[in-house]
Amino acid sequence: MALSPSDFSGDAIIQGYGPGFFRVAGQVIRGPVLVEGDQGQPWGGLGDEAALLALAGRVDVLFLGTGAQPAYPPRGLFDRLGQAGIRAEAMPSPNAARTYNVTRSEGRRVACALLPL
Q1: Which superfamily, per CATH, for 14-114?
Q2: pTM higher than the cut 0.85
């Protein structure tokens, strides 16, 4: 599915997604993806908390895409992120991608970690 284009002044945006992939700033990334600022990169999934905690000081909110369906994050993940100063919200990946794009277009300090559909 393609998402609506907007002007993001050089920021990496999520342009589309499908079974097992995301298109971020013109690049197709297979598997889980982490998007922040001007880059999207492969991410190790929910077992890769270090990549999420490394966002401390750079983002205020992390949108966690849980795949096609709503799901709970691993126990304690949101507490650890909160201790690092990152508020996290979990939702299905399509919703997280759209929410990230909208809030990033507003100039807010956000990131998005998405599990594939």
Answers
A1: MTH938-like (3.40.1230.10)
A2: yes
